[in-house]
């Protein structure tokens, strides 16, 4: 049951939420790109922080926040707490691993101040709504982080292949990125719809 919910989250949201990432990456598409070079580095440590942050915040809101705060008003706390948690984990990572700090900064794609462009609070809302146990929260947050990582891999491969293949001039850069992400979003939305329908029948 929780696996299907995680797959639905993975399929239905990751690629769609990363459309802004695609637009931002395509914004500089007019610049000369060396052949075969992937445009943006993969922010592995930020994806790891995303996973840890969602899990930590789920524990905080599920067990630390008093019961009388749990309700509609609690959703207004998700964004500021997500931003503070992401900034805190990034600060701790840079302090704990000073030698790797420069490499970590170079591989930043998202801003911690915006809670990774809203990806962390969005994942937290879904995880908090669907997960009733720690194992469920772990699977959902893991699938969400994996979805973001997969989407970035796909985008980087599209960029790399666009420099190697004979792509028509009018499709290079933003148009190719938008078409590719649109098709991937349609596929992911279809898979998510199938998973949610199965979940409805199982309830």
Structure description:
It is a single chain. With 203 residues, the protein is mostly helical. It has one domain. It is built from 9 helices and no strands. α4 crosses α5 (75-96) and α5 crosses α7 (119-130). The longest helix is centred in the C-terminal third of the chain and has 31 residues, at 134-164.
Total DSSP helices? 9
How many E-type strands? 0
Give, in order, the helices and strands: HHHHHHHHH
Average pLDDT works out at 74
Which stretches are poorly predicted, pLDDT < 50 over at least 5 residues?
A: 24-38
Distance between the termini: 9 Å
Radius of gyration, whole Å:
18 Å
Strand residues, percent: under 5%
The structure class reads mainly alpha
Q: What topology emerges from the helices and strands here?
A:
Layout: H1 2-12, H2 14-17, H3 19-26, H4 44-64, H5 75-96, H6 101-106, H7 119-130, H8 134-164, H9 174-202
Helix pairs in contact: 1-8, 1-9, 3-9, 4-5, 4-7, 4-8, 5-7, 7-8, 8-9
Could you provide a short overview of the structure?
The chain is mainly alpha-helical and 203 residues long. It has helices spanning 2-12, 14-17, 19-26, 44-64, 75-96, 101-106, 119-130, 134-164, 174-202.
Provide the descriptors you would attach to this structure in a database record.
203 residues, single chain, mainly alpha, 9 helices, 0% strand
